[in-house]
């Protein structure tokens, strides 16, 4: 496992930012923003996609308790359909950053694109959730908060199995949409059904 960097520039207050659920057919896109104390680390910390659900759920309360500041932003399907998923991802990131009760000097964003936030400088880091601790921590918060939301709406529409597929475009999820039609939680601007052969 690659060692995660504690920061990009020592002595600078950096907020790591990442999102979850961008490729899903249903549910919100969710972003996390985290400022960690200098030198903070945890043996389990890694890109959330590399962690089991159990490990992510162990990490979440630790990150929330020990971070200098953290925030989570949700953008829901109606808004995703209105502005497109890329803009919705930026919006979720901005909402998460706005919740931070410490102002960052710099923003570290997972991926290759970002819409500038206020007057704060930013750096896009490709696969940043596997490289920098604050981005990895943000990825854990984004994923666990989104999963929790999907489990909640699963109660309303259990036939869609969101407690297990979390809204991702699995073959089974598409088959269920074909049988039952879309719900208000589905993104109407996405190709919900499999393409005709």
Question: What's a concise summary of this model?
Answer:
This protein is α/β, with parallel strands linked by helices and 197 residues long. Helices cover 36% and strands 16% of the residues. Helix 1 crosses helix 4 and helix 2 (77-83) crosses helix 3 (85-98).
Structure description:
- 36% of the residues lie in helices and 16% in strands.
- The chain is an alpha/beta fold and 197 residues long.
- β1 and β2 form a beta hairpin.
- α1 crosses α4 and α2 crosses α3.
- The longest helix is centred in the last third of the chain and has 22 residues, at 133-154.
- It starts with 13 loop residues before the first strand and ends in a 17-residue tail after the last helix.
- The model has no long low-confidence stretch (mean pLDDT 95).
The helix tally amounts to 6
Order of helices and strands: EEHEHHEEHHH
Describe the main β-sheet briefly: 5 strands, mixed
Mean pLDDT: 95
Strand order of the largest sheet: 3-2-1-4-5
Q: Quote the distance from N terminus to C terminus.
A: 41 Å
CATH homologous superfamily title: Ribonuclease H-like superfamily/Ribonuclease H
Whole-number tally of structural domains = 1
Low-confidence stretches: none
Overall form = globular
Number of strands: 5
Topology:
Elements: E1 14-20, E2 29-35, H1 53-66, E3 69-75, H2 77-83, H3 85-98, E4 106-110, E5 121-125, H4 133-154, H5 162-165, H6 171-180
Parallel strand pairs: 1-4, 4-5
Antiparallel strand pairs: 1-2, 2-3
Helix pairs in contact: 1-4, 2-3
Which keywords apply here?
197 residues; alpha/beta; 5-stranded mixed beta sheet; 36% helix
